[in-house]
């Protein structure tokens, strides 16, 4: 099948060459952005949006138009949640400094966060981003195992540092992954094997490959909902076989919870819980501060000790009191508003609605997911192959209807559905109705 593969950051990207086709005022704003950001500028949609404010599951543009947010998982407990905003403002007015002084706000947060992990995961290192968390996790894994190699999925994205870019095949434009990386397909049933067996067989080959290259396996790193690969959630538990193989080979399991963490999958706080496994290292980011930039690495004390004996680690802004206040407010809102249960209930309703649409529209090839993380594949009805053009068209049609959505997957043909967890069943109906209207109008 010769279908162009798409880089995750390129999906649904505004084409800089089309700036002249925009209304004059918008063209001016886009040109202004391009003048400062240069080639690194990425804007969403054929017609970019100037966003001004947000609340709950809605954003508002400069003309006051409202958009339903079905895309953004960072403001996870709801855009500008008053409790989180208040915690940030209060702490910013009191003290904001690194973690080299004692501070009760910081310690209370670390304890509460760690109480939500299984033994023996009882130490945390605070960072500012998911990328920093994965970079640190990789360094810990290398020191603990003495091995150099990493196993990743083929459309994975784990972040932007030099090291982490090497284990993010979806970011590599003009070259192959580094020699210390072995790439495996996204978990899917194949060749008479079920999902667990198929994924384990790929991981077993990757372990042998890294062994043959003389570098060994430091870790298998997985986003536990496989979001950039196109959302692969089921059946729960399918990661167990692969994790056992990696451990047998002396490697670690790193669970990247940057996307699924903090309740999104509706099956607990962490995506790995659905699989009945305990990772060796867990990395966090995005929803951790509901928009306040923060990340973290949770691991075993003996692993962290080994790492710290080898090398110093200091992160100026990681775990500062304002970050801790934001992070703690997020945990409390998740508890008090029952957002994990809500994610499960609204997510189940969402998948059922989309499956009903699938029965009517041959362009929808599959609906997958857990909680409020759902992937919807677009296919060409005649061939059954992934259809990136339909996905791109639908995304831009929905934007015109006031709905924000994006794509994922190797071919960019999967709608990546991950709204704030305050999303309601009425919001699901709005989205499903608008998607049905788009498909009927094709
Ligand atoms: C699974 C995953 N891990 C890590 C990262 C990197 O996080 P950040 O952009 O905060 O550095 C991302 C970002 O999209 C991600 O999706």
Description:
This protein is an alpha/beta fold and 442 residues long. The protein has two domains: 8-77 and 339-441, Alpha-Beta Complex (Aspartate Aminotransferase, domain 1); 82-336, Aspartate Aminotransferase, domain 2 (3-Layer(aba) Sandwich), CATH 3.40.640. It contains twelve helices and 15 strands. It has helices at residues 24-37, 82-92, 104-114, 130-145, 162-166, 195-212, 239-248, 301-310, 321-336, 339-360, 388-400, 425-441, and strands at residues 51-55, 58-61, 66-69, 123-127, 149-153, 181-184, 217-223, 252-256, 281-284, 295-299, 364-370, 373-378, 403-404, 406-408, 414-417. Strands 4-10-9-8-7-5-6 form a seven-stranded mixed sheet, sandwiched between helices. A hairpin with a 5-residue loop joins strand 14 and strand 15 (414-417). Helix 3 (104-114) packs across helix 9, helix 6 packs parallel to helix 7 and helix 10 runs parallel beside helix 12. The model has no long low-confidence stretch (mean pLDDT 96). Bound molecules: pyridoxal-5'-phosphate (PLP). The site of pyridoxal-5'-phosphate has 15 residues, from helix 4. GO terms for molecular function: pyridoxal phosphate binding; transaminase activity. Its cofactor is pyridoxal 5'-phosphate. This is 4-aminobutyrate aminotransferase. InterPro entries: Aminotrans_3, Aminotrans_3_PPA_site, PyrdxlP-dep_Trfase, PyrdxlP-dep_Trfase_major, PyrdxlP-dep_Trfase_small. Belongs to the class-III pyridoxal-phosphate-dependent aminotransferase family.
């Amino acid at each position: 099948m010769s279908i162009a593969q798409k880089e995750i950051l390129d999906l649904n990207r505004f084409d800089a060459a089309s700036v002249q086709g925009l209304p004059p005022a918008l063209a001016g704003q886009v040109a202004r952005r391009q003048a400062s950001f240069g080639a690194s500028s990425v804007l969403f949609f054929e017609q970019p949006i100037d966003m001004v404010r947000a609340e709950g599951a809605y954003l508002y543009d400069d003309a006051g138009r409202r958009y339903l947010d079905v895309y953004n998982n960072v403001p996870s407990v709801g855009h500008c949640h008053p409790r989180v905003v208040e915690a940030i403002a209060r702490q910013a007015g009191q003290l904001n400094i690194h973690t080299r002084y004692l501070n009760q706000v910081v310690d209370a947060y670390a304890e509460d966060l760690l109480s939500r992990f299984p033994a023996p995961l009882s130490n945390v290192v605070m960072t500012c981003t998911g990328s920093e968390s994965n970079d640190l996790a990789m360094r810990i894994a290398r020191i603990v195992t003495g091995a150099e190699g990493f196993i990743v999925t083929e459309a994975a994205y784990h972040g932007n540092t030099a090291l982490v870019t090497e284990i993010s095949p979806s970011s590599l434009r003009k070259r192959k992954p580094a020699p210390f990386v072995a790439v495996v397909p996204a978990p899917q049933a194949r060749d008479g094997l079920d999902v667990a067996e198929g994924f384990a067989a790929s991981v077993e080959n990757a372990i042998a490959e890294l062994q043959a290259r003389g570098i060994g396996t430091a870790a298998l790193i997985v986003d536990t909902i496989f979001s950039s690969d196109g959302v692969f959630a089921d059946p729960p538990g399918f990661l167990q076989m692969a994790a056992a193989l990696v451990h047998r080979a002396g490697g670690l399991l790193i669970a990247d919870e940057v996307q699924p963490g903090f309740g999104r999958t509706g099956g607990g706080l962490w995506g790995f819980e659905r699989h009945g496994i305990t990772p060796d290292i867990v990395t966090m980011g995005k929803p951790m501060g509901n928009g306040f930039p923060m990340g973290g690495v949770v691991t075993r004390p003996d692993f962290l000790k080994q790492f710290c004996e080898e090398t110093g680690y200091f992160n100026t802004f990681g775990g500062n009191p304002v970050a801790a206040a934001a992070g703690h407010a997020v945990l409390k809102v998740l508890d008090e508003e029952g957002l994990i249960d809500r994610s499960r209930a609204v997510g189940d309703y969402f998948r059922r609605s989309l499956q009903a649409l699938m029965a009517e529209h041959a362009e929808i090839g599959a609906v997958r997911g857990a909680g409020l993380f759902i992937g919807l594949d677009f296919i060409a009805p005649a061939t059954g192959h992934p259809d990136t053009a339909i996905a791109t068209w639908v995304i831009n049609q929905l934007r015109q209807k006031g709905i924000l959505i994006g794509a994922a997957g190797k071919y960019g043909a999967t709608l990546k559905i991950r709204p704030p967890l305050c999303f309601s069943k009425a919001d699901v109906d709005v989205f499903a109705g608008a998607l049905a209207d788009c498909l009927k109008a094709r």
